[in-house]
Design a protein that fits this description.
By secondary structure, the chain is an alpha/beta fold. Among the domains are: about 170 residues, no CATH class; about 55 residues, no CATH class; about 140 residues, Ribonuclease H-like superfamily/Ribonuclease H (Nucleotidyltransferase, domain 5), CATH 3.30.420.10; about 120 residues, no CATH class. The protein is built from 22 helices and 13 strands. Helix 8 packs across helix 10 and helix 10 crosses helix 21. The longest helix has about 30 residues. It starts with 15 loop residues before the first helix and ends in a 7-residue tail after the last helix. The relative contact order is 0.07.
Length: about 725
């Protein structure tokens, strides 16, 4: 009788794609068995070793069986294997509670402390708790102490190495055990922050390995080190798919068709910018055909070069970095001069054009409304040496940017301190010229703007940002608390700042504000009622309920008249602060505007220098991006709840969560690209036109921001000296 070959029958082998799909389904099924074990990882592994078990599911079965029998009050005996005597008695523990939290006496064995109950002595008189060790005993049942499954995480991590020769039913996966909380559904980690506990949904969407395509004669394979030159030694180029399809369908004869020639055809490759040209020529220089990897615009401008330049600016990138990226990739790229000319000629004017359109639409939307505007300036560098200032006005109800004005210090006689005031004047003038009615303006406590509002805009309500005021009070409290005699004040600093926020939000007039704000001087010394109010209609008592030790945070009250109390009195009754009370009664905050200024860093980083038109264009791009995406809705989970995302603040040392919004849309970029292409098609002169500074360009005032003209380079070289020169 012919011997039968071991293994699967012929014809039952699965393809590579089918095996991968099968593995994926198996992983999904096993993924349903994952649980958390919390900080019991070391105890779990120790129990596994002491019981001489090979697989984690055996440990789980052992512990669960023991819990069930303990709960029923039964005595459990292990099945005798290899001469091990059955167990006849168990230590008593509360059902459902792990030994890690039980208060056992010092007589308890190490095994009891590790969550495994002590077994009866074996035949040799020694205690032996080890159950069967062979694979055949997989289905054996053991008594078990219960470990809370909500505190452990078991992840199957073993790869299926040979599905062709292994049986699914006998496959035993290895398991990784990690720590985790009880409920992490719907909570994701913030990008850029250390990942803590990824959700099951995140793990399921991990990208699977791409199915390996069968190699054909035209597919280049890199399998050994000798093949690396195919990637590192070949140049790359930007190719449009339609052009590639045209090349695939192109038919070129192998010999020259010129009468009397008949020579063979050679293909030459030439890189021009980001494009690549193929040219079919014979040995007699007869050109049979040409092909370009990109569409070509009028006057021979390659479409890829224009799209690369547009993408760099519209995405907020930097040309030098992108050029370096292309260099490492050995990809053709437009030159610095080409990018500069394209940017000046088409890109910057297109941004100005689209912003004017979007601004007109927003003005029409806000017509016939009493507007509340948030205003603030953003410098391009810290300190008092800024060159550019971007002053922004945001409308309160829509949270959209209404006006963006950029200024150069050359426009304020080289004084950076005057930039914010000049930007405010231009922004307000633009809003008023558009016919909008401004009822209130909210700014920080800028002295120049405050004086300007009183003089030129008396009919407009002027409010101050509460956050800036609270920050200044906090700084004063911390500074006062640094004194040796005022250290007790530090414990009250946070509460006093919070009280300022509460007062600004609650008070409706100056009298109420004074009563609540000055009352903190009595509260910190344990006085919650006082005889005389600090204003005609003010309060003479605290507004809180009776306090307990927990309500005060167990903080000690200050001693009335002590140095700490007197230092606090100076801060609370500061004349400059009390004079500004009317500016805080509307409880306004410019937090959204600060968020926009942070968003501007994506387009105009403070680490790079820009020309005035480019800096203006990048500021407008940030506004276009912000206005388009400010109304995004939060993402909801399958159960209808809002998806939250957690992030860690290194400064405060606290975790916080915020709603995850829909992905951003960049429809304004499509509009910009269409405007750029239209400007190119309408251009009759091209990029060779001589550059002329636009009207209002600060470079018309002075070529540089230096107060004196630059000396000759050779003179600077001769005058330069180094301390390290011999």
């Amino acid at each position: 009788m012919a011997s039968r070959k071991r293994g699967r029958p012929f014809g039952s082998q699965l393809s590579l794609s089918a095996r991968k799909e099968r593995k994926k389904m198996m992983d999904r099924e096993r993924g349903k068995e994952r649980i958390f074990i919390g900080d019991n990882i070391e105890r779990w592994n120790r129990v596994k070793d002491e019981l001489n078990l090979m697989f984690n599911h055996e440990v789980a079965g052992f512990l669960l069986d023991r819990y069930e029998h303990d709960k029923q009050g039964k005595v459990v005996s292990s099945t005798p294997v290899h001469g091990i005597k059955p167990t006849t008695e168990l230590l008593k523990h509360p059902a459902g509670i792990s030994d890690i939290s039980s208060a056992e006496s010092g007589k308890a064995s190490d095994l009891a402390m590790s969550g495994i109950e002590q077994m009866e002595a074996g035949p040799s008189g020694s205690e032996d708790i080890r159950p069967p060790t062979s694979k055949k005993a997989k289905g054996s049942k053991y008594s078990a102490s219960f470990l809370d499954p909500l505190e452990i995480s078991i992840d199957i991590s073993e790869e299926v190495e040979d599905l062709e020769e292994s049986d699914d039913e006998s496959y035993q996966p290895s398991i990784n055990i990690s720590l985790g909380p009880k409920d992490i559904t719907g909570i994701e980690d913030c990008p850029g922050v250390e990942s803590v506990f990824p959700t099951m949904e995140e793990e399921e969407v991990e990208e699977e390995d791409k199915e390996e395509e069968e190699a054909g004669p035209s597919i280049c394979r890199v399998l050994t080190g000798e093949d690396f030159h195919h990637l590192t030694g070949n140049k790359t180029a930007l190719v449009y798919l339609m052009q590639l399809k045209t090349l695939a369908n192109k038919k070129v004869d192998s010999v020259c068709k010129v009468k009397g020639c008949g020579e063979g055809i050679d293909i030459s490759i030439k890189h021009v910018g980001s494009a690549v040209y193929l040219k079919w020529t014979c040995r007699n220089s007869h050109v049979m055909d040409r092909w370009c990897s990109q569409p070509v615009l009028n006057k021979g401008l390659h479409g890829g070069d224009l799209m690369i330049a547009s993408s760099i600016l519209f995405s907020g990138n930097n040309f030098n970095k992108m050029e370096l990226f292309a260099k490492f990739l050995q990809m053709g790229f437009p030159s610095q001069s080409s990018f500069t000319r394209l940017q000046r000629r088409y890109l910057v004017p297109s941004v100005d054009h689209l912003w004017s359109q979007k601004q007109e639409e927003l003005i029409a939307e806000l017509a016939n409304k009493d507007l509340v505007l948030f205003g603030d300036g953003r410098m391009d560098s810290p300190g008092h040496c800024a060159q550019f200032c971007t002053y922004t006005l945001m409308e309160k109800s829509t949270k959209k940017i209404l006006s963006v004005k950029t200024l150069d210090k050359r426009e304020t006689e080289g004084k950076s301190g005057n930039l914010e005031k000049a930007g405010f004047i231009r922004g307000m003038q633009e809003v008023q010229d558009s016919g909008l009615k401004v009822a209130e303006v909210v700014t920080d406590a800028h002295i120049q703007i405050g004086a300007l509002m009183k003089k030129d805009y008396p009919a407009v309500k002027h409010s101050h940002d509460v956050w800036h005021a609270a920050k200044n009070i906090g700084k004063k409290l911390i500074s006062a608390g640094q004194e040796k005699s005022c250290k007790e004040l530090q414990k009250w600093s946070k509460d006093i700042v919070n009280h300022f926020w509460f007062t600004c939000k609650t008070a409706n007039n100056i009298d109420e504000f004074m009563g609540m704000w000055v009352g903190v001087l009595h509260h910190v010394v344990g006085e919650h009622e006082w005889y005389l109010p600090y204003s005609e209609m003010g309060l003479s008592m605290c507004k809180h309920d009776p306090l307990t030790g927990e309500d005060t945070g167990n903080k000690e009250y200050l001693i009335k008249g002590s140095p700490a109390h007197e230092a606090l009195r100076k801060i609370i009754l500061d004349k400059r602060l009390l004079h500004k009370i009317p500016y805080y009664l509307n409880f306004r905050s410019t937090a959204e505007l600060e968020s926009f200024h942070n968003h501007m860093l994506m387009y105009s980083s403070k680490r790079f220098a820009y020309t005035p038109p480019v800096y203006r264009a990048r500021s407008l791009l940030a506004a276009l991006d912000y206005n388009e995406n400010v109304d995004r809705e939060p993402i909801t989970n399958k159960d209808g709840t809002v998806r939250m995302q957690r992030t860690y603040n290194k400064k405060s040392g606290r975790w916080t969560v915020y709603a995850v919004k829909e992905k951003k849309k960049y429809t304004h970029v499509s509009s910009l690209l269409n405007i750029v292409l239209q400007k190119r098609l309408e251009d009759r002169e091209g990029l060779q036109e001589r550059m002329v500074l636009e009207i209002g360009d600060p470079r018309r005032i002075s070529r540089t921001i230096a107060p004196v003209p630059p000396p000759r380079t050779q003179q600077l070289v001769e005058e330069k000296k180094s301390r390290f020169d011999a």
